[in-house]
Write a structure and sequence with these properties.
The protein contains eight helices and eight strands; from the N terminus they run E-E-E-H-E-H-E-H-E-H-H-H-H-E-E-H. Strand 3, helix 1 and strand 4 form a beta-alpha-beta unit.
Length: 325
């Protein structure tokens, strides 16, 4: 099956409460013939984790055409993939103070960007050669920090028909906190103080982590060129969002509000040590699927058996009732 590719950008200045011109950029990967006209089409709305760009979902390794590209795999299965760089990272526009970019700002800007892109998809103006798609079924697909942002956007705006949460356990990494007492603060206080706490977190010395914990980013069997390609796509960090990702239960209120179908994907050696615990926080959803990829670390898209996860997601999406939100 042939593929169509294009870069995309959306002006999100209206929803970003900071001075300046703000643009979110990314890419679209689509099949040249996504299916019969008028039939529903899965649209995977992808957000990367901390320090990663949209290339995490479309990784190209020297000497390897596209076997490490989740985007190509999902497009070959008939879906359209929209992958964005978070505001102030990758190809998206920078900001004067990266600490000021909070999870709420990312949720608003990414919601605005995906909404605009879905509109272009319906109109047939998103990619040259791609016919209008009258019934796109948007699935919020986030990895790690991107999963947290996807969850917050879904709870606030109902952006997606379903949510695929990859590697976002929600339990945090409290052993890395600059001040362990932050875990005792209530969520309202944490959210109101997040930017200032991030300045403390990333200018001070963090608590020494437990070196015996099983979580890893890549298993030992991931080839060096693949790890190199992963490192080459890394971008700047968003400190306040990074801190939110390691604060235990930071996004639990939003998790509890999500009622659409949820796919939870983890690696056997993910940063979330007890993936099954993540199910409990999605108490409003009556359709939850948990999949653990054996042998994989936190970065599942570079695992040797990565296609098992990708195929399982497609199977889930095609077999789950996905009403448009």
């Amino acid at each position: 099956m042939g593929r169509l590719r294009s870069t995309v950008e959306v002006d999100v200045s209206d929803v970003v409460p900071m001075p300046g011109h703000h643009v979110v950029r990314g890419e679209v990967v689509a099949p040249s013939n996504p299916g019969p006209s008028g039939s529903p089409t899965l649209v995977w709305c992808c957000l990367p984790g901390g320090n990663c760009t949209s290339d995490y979902f479309d990784l190209h390794v020297d000497g390897d055409d596209a076997s490490y590209s989740m985007a190509a795999h999902l497009a070959d299965a008939g879906g359209v993939v929209l992958a964005l760089d978070h505001l102030a990272t990758g190809a998206s526009s920078p900001v004067d103070d990266s600490f000021s970019v909070t999870p709420e700002i990312l949720a608003a800007s990414n919601h605005a960007a995906f909404t605009a892109l879905l509109g272009r998809l319906r109109e047939g103006t998103l990619v040259a050669g791609l016919e209008p798609i009258a019934t796109p079924l948007p699935i919020g697909l986030g990895h790690s920090m991107g999963a947290m942002i996807t969850i917050i956007a879904q709870a606030r705006y109902g952006t997606y028909a379903a949510v695929a949460n990859l590697g976002g356990g929600g339990g945090g990494l409290p052993q890395y906190l600059h001040d362990p007492n932050w875990v005792t603060w209530d969520r309202a206080r944490l959210r109101a103080s997040l930017v200032e706490l991030a300045r403390q977190q990333f200018s001070g010395t963090t608590t020494a982590p437990d070196r015996g914990r099983p979580g890893i980013f890549h298993a030992d069997d991931v080839p060096a060129p693949v790890v190199g390609a992963f490192r080459s796509q890394l971008t700047t960090s968003l400190p306040s969002c990074a801190l939110a990702s390691i604060l235990p239960a930071f996004s639990d209120p939003e998790r509890g509000e999500i009622s659409v179908p949820v796919f939870l994907g983890f690696g056997e050696h993910d940063l979330s040590q007890v993936p099954h615990e993540a199910v409990r926080s999605f108490r409003s959803s009556t359709d939850i699927t948990l999949f653990v990829l054996d042998g994989s670390g936190h970065c599942h898209n570079q695992a040797g058996n990565r296609r098992r996860l990708w195929d399982r997601m497609v199977e889930w999406a095609c077999s789950t009732s996905l009403p448009f939100p």
